[in-house]
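For practice. Any example?
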Amino acid sequence: MENTVTPLKGMQILRELSAQNIPSTIKFISLNDTDKVSKGIVEEKNIILMQGYRRNQSKKADILASFMRMGTEENRQFYWPLLCELNGRKIKP
């Protein structure tokens, strides 16, 4: 198995794990597009992907991924093209 994957392949793996209700750890570059700020690389542990926005709900539906923090059931989002790591596996741009 190769050590790095593309963001698209990383999301495919993350979707498969989430479909089996297997939590994952991800790292991504944060981006608040509204305020044009970033907090750098953020790590989220114990997450499961959720259904995100539909195209008629958000112009960013194709690049936003929604997830739930398993411990708190808090819903969050990230820009999946900015995914850097999945379960310790590096994501190449």
Notes: The longest strand covers residues 41-50. Helices lie at 7-19. The first helix runs from residue 7 to 19.
